[in-house]
Design brief:
Length: 151
């Protein structure tokens, strides 16, 4: 996973404490995440967030319900994931569609997320956005980007 930070970018504390966030103006956030089923090693379920949240840490899968469908859509899944960073945690509820790709070992995952709870520096944040990425069945790994807004 490669994350590019732009020079002069504000820290999460600067953005979170800015008048815009204090007034509830949505700020952009992007979270790059990599997860391996079961999180077998310390670096197998990790994230890096940029924008309104500037943090990194581990991902905890709280719950998942997945369903296969007899249609062009391979399936659907509802997740609850918690991003546990150095400044707090952010829990999202996510609804995803899982679709085939040209590679039978890889599925495309796209969905929508909403913040359901948060702690630490993020305790009063609300947010929403979209998810886009891929699941590799051979490595049981998910690489996705969550983009959206928090306030």
């Amino acid at each position: 996973m490669v994350v590019v930070l732009s020079p002069g970018a504000a820290s999460a504390a600067d953005v979170y404490n800015s008048p815009a966030v204090a007034e509830g103006v949505p700020q952009e956030v992007s979270i790059n995440a990599h997860s391996v089923r079961g999180c077998p090693t310390a670096d197998s379920c990790v994230f890096t967030a940029t924008g309104a949240i500037d943090d990194h840490g581990v991902i905890k899968l709280e719950s998942v319900q997945a369903h296969a469908l007899p249609s062009p859509v391979v399936g659907t899944a509802q997740y609850v994931r918690t991003f546990i960073g150095t400044k707090g945690s952010l829990t999202i509820r996510l609804e995803s569609r899982i679709r085939p790709t040209d590679d039978p070992a890889v599925a495309r995952e796209e969905g929508r997320w909403v913040v359901v709870s948060a702690t630490g520096s993020y305790a009063s944040l609300n947010g929403w956005g979209s998810e886009s990425g891929s699941f590799n069945f051979e490595t049981a790994s998910l690489d996705v980007t969550y983009v959206g807004y928090v306030h």
